Amino acid sequence: MKIRILLLFIAMLVLVNVACAKEENNLVKVSMITSLGEIEIELDRNLAPITVDNFVGLATGTKEYRDPTSGQMTTSNFYDNLIFHRVIKDFMIQGGCPLGTGTGGPGYQFEDECYSEGERITGEVNTEDKAQAIWNQLIIPYFNNTPEPNAELMEIVEAVSRLQSGAPLLGKDVSFYESITGLGPVYLQGQLKATVDYGTICMANAGPNTNGSQFFIVTNRDGAAWLNGRHTVFGKVTKGMDVVHQIENVEKGPNDRPLEEVKIISVRVIN
Description:
alpha+beta, 2 domains, two-stranded antiparallel ribbon, 6 helices, 12 strands, globular
């Protein structure tokens, strides 16, 4: 009996160690060298695997993006020599725009990772919650990345916009939307994965599921709770918040743009 208990205890320790190792393997440490100093950031695939892989891929030149000048798809160390184009004291510093204006990106967009997956939706879309999930997870990504969208779906979207209601989405089967968009499955909203706290790095966006390359680092010591669930949190600063605060305190002109450029010289993986 004692041997069985000992073996069970050993097995539990092994499982715990495997789980911890898996969690640690999902942490990516990067060094962001700026013109004002170094910022070390720990990115967490446990929170946002798509977002972390996108950031790392762009930073290391392994992910394609559309060059804003040539219009061609290319690869390079995307973040090198970009600027922090928007800094707001006691709020955040923002960078990652290839145009340096806050209007640019990598030529594609991808979904938010703010919430864990809830229950999968199948069958008829018969509630506002289901309609919202269809809108956020299928329709917005589809229209963001489809130059010539389906005519029937366009009529539904125009009705949603005109009525300012999800009612036009109701009555059809989930498979109808999945078939047209080529996306899915769809899930109801689960639990919030992470809060927008002091020192976190989050994706900047223009609304739900419009992530690209722009990011911000929170400088408010109380965090930014009003952004919870609206911006994907994908890591945190582990060293160099003094540099972050230097950046937020530079002199600014219109649109919170630094009067003297603060550059991201390089972003490299260090683990």
